[in-house]
# Entry
Amino acid sequence: MSYLMSNYAPLEVTFVKGKGCYLTDTKGEQYLDALSGVGVVGLGHCHKDITNAIQTQAGELLHTSNWYHIQHQEALAKKLCQLANMDATFFSNSGAEANEAAIKIARLHGHANNIDNPIILTANQSFHGRTMATLSATGNEKVQNGFAPLVSEFIHVDRKSVV
Ligand SMILES: Cc1ncc(COP(=O)(O)O)c(C=O)c1O
# Structure
């Protein structure tokens, strides 16, 4: 019996070890991790430098808050902005949270330009996350089923109509 809520339907495999782009399951079977987690471990599993950095940080300071300045966060923001030629970064914990921020920024931009009811276009057959706003933005009824009322002011369009 599982004590996890049944919101996902996982495959019958449990990974217990990762090295580079390979995973090993409980039976010792090896797999190529073509998903990189879900795009989370682009530099591979258990790289020595990344493992060391995580271990060092865990031994120094686990968590403060955005109420305070965070040295490493500010250093990384600067590096990312310089590399990407952008002005500012926003760090979030998940794809859904990043998209929530994008939705909020788009609405703020609309209001700043005297649009009372800003509407956001998203693509049919898209996926934007499982929070209320991002599942409302998602162009796939399967993700939305059962969660009405949805967040309004998203219009879903076919991809070929936006290019
Ligand atoms: C395109 C896209 N947007 C948003 C998400 C949501 O990301 P998360 O599961 O980290 O909230 C995903 C996750 O697979 C995604 O593929």
Remarks:
- The chain has three domains: 1-62, 66-92, 95-162.
- DSSP finds seven helices and five strands in the chain.
- The beta strands are 15-19, 22-25, 30-32, 120-123, 154-157.
